[in-house]
Amino acid sequence: MAKRLFKDQYDDEEVLLVFRKHPVVMRRGLIYFMIAILLGTVPSFIKPELSYFYAGLGGGFLLGIIVMFPSWVYWYFSVNIMTDQRFIQIVQKGFFKKRYSDINIDQIQSINYEVVGVQETLLGFGTIIIQTYLGDIIINEVHKPQETAKELSLILRDNHHNPDEKSEAEEIAAKVSHERLRQQ
After folding, report:
1. What is the pTM of this model?
2. Are 72 and 29 in contact (CB under 8 A)?
3. Helix residue ranges, H only, the chain
4. Residue 89: helix, strand or coil by DSSP?
5. Crossing angle of helices 27-40 and 50-77, rounded to 10°
6. pLDDT at 43 (0 to 100)
7. If DSSP codes are grouped into helix, strand and coil, which group holds residue 23?
């Protein structure tokens, strides 16, 4: 039995791609982190001693980590997984709210992406839209959306097999075989 990479993975399922949002989703937490560090140095303005500065800086750093932790949790535990059988989207909102979406790979119609604006262009993130028979799955703030959408499309192309449809190679082989039988 192969090693499971996530909790709900099937025994016969192979994980082909795992991707997260761009770290830019933590920007608010990072700004609060920097403000907390600056606020930690305020006691050294009241009493200008080196010990007050270092103690305040340490306290500000600790406060900053506490303030940034929810942003990191959202980024780290929100993950998208493409397997050879399905696409799974897990979105963590805070500590006690998680959204789980699971769609069969055969229900995916197309994969598109868009990069809009200066910030998205300069920092290399955008939106991926996965069109399905059930509706669209929109994944915002994906790192390198063009490359990720291409990988998803390749996986979809390589693993999507409808038993009712014959591949081009199968159709050509059938025609050649039919021609050979006719010539005999």
Report:
1. 0.72
2. yes
3. 27-40, 43-46, 50-77, 118-123, 145-159, 168-183
4. strand
5. 170
6. 81
7. helix
